[in-house]
């Protein structure tokens, strides 16, 4: 009952039709309908499904569901909104609740407020005081369109905070498209006035190295794994410096394994 009341009184007034971009909507127990173009968006467990094909909202594997709670840096962002609406773009199934926070995801997970796509955010212009997104932009098909949508729904004095991947292996939730350098992310966000950019403590090189090495060793058979885990850093550097095309410690790799940890790709 409380979730339904929140949908009707807080979330619904902020929504717009993704088909005709109109804000003239009406709501009943089972759906939201656009008065202008007659588009209908189902409501599932008090979550509006604001995507072109609603069936995709339920088409996910439990393996892609991230259920992390907010760390202090995200809580601080929400607290700095002075009670104004805040959007978490790509929230996963985060269990934490804040009355002014809307959690948007592409799947109808239990703790999500709205199902929608970043490339066509289902919200009216000038809606949010803060929009934040953590480890999501690498998974969208058109990050530039996502940023244009963020700019549209952001209030004039609003703030944006985005974290994304740089040196990370392929990790699909459910797809992985683009990794970015700091300069690349700055270019992507050039529509905004930059207050700061850089590397947070949880984005340090040690995380990239640990992730790469752990993923590498998990793909090896017993004999190769033992050899790899027993090798020194000096031995590994020497091996691939002498012969950059050496297959040592990679004989067990499948084509998908190669893609996950590749230095580059081609088309």
Percent helix: 25-40%
Low-confidence stretches: none
Tally of DSSP helical segments: 8
Strand content: 15-25%
The largest sheet, given as strand count, sense and whether it forms a barrel, is: 5 strands, parallel
Task: Please state how the strands of the largest beta sheet are arranged side by side.
Answer: 7-6-5-8-9
Number of strands: 9
Order of helices and strands: HEEEEHEEEEHEHHHHH
Mean pLDDT: 97
Give Rg in angstroms.
Answer: 22 Å
The secondary-structure class comes to alpha/beta
Q: Which geometry do the CA atoms define?
A: elongated
Task: Break the fold down into its secondary structure elements and pairings.
Elements: H1 2-11, E1 25-27, E2 31-34, E3 40-44, E4 47-48, H2 72-79, E5 86-89, E6 101-105, E7 114-115, E8 128-134, H3 143-153, E9 154-163, H4 182-188, H5 205-218, H6 222-230, H7 233-242, H8 255-261
Parallel strand pairs: 5-6, 5-8, 6-7, 8-9
Antiparallel strand pairs: 1-2, 2-3, 3-4
């Amino acid at each position: 009952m409380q979730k339904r009341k929140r949908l009707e009184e807080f979330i619904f007034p902020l929504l717009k039709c993704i088909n005709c971009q109109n804000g003239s909507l009406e709501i009943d127990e089972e759906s939201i309908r656009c008065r202008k173009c007659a588009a209908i968006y189902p409501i599932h467990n008090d979550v509006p499904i604001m995507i072109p094909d609603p069936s995709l909202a339920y088409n996910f594997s439990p393996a892609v569901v991230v259920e992390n709670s907010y760390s202090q840096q995200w809580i601080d962002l929400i607290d700095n909104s002075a009670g104004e609406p805040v959007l978490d773009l790509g929230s996963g199934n985060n269990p934490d609740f804040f009355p002014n926070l809307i959690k948007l995801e592409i799947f109808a997970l239990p703790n999500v407020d709205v199902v929608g796509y970043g490339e066509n955010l289902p919200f009216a212009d000038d809606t949010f005081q803060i929009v934040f997104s953590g480890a999501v932009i690498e998974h969208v098909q058109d990050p530039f369109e996502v940023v244009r949508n963020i700019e549209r729904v952001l209030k004039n004095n609003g703030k944006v905070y985005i974290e994304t991947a740089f040196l990370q292996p392929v990790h699909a939730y459910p797809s992985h498209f683009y990794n970015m350098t700091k300069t690349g992310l700055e270019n992507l966000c050039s529509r905004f006035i930059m207050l700061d950019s850089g590397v947070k403590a949880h984005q340090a090189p040690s995380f990239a190295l640990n992730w790469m090495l752990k993923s590498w060793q998990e793909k090896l058979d017993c004999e190769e794994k033992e050899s790899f885990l027993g090798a020194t850093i000096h031995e590994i550097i020497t091996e691939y410096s002498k012969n950059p095309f050496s297959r040592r410690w990679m004989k067990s790799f499948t084509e998908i394994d190669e893609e996950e940890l590749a230095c580059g790709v081609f088309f």
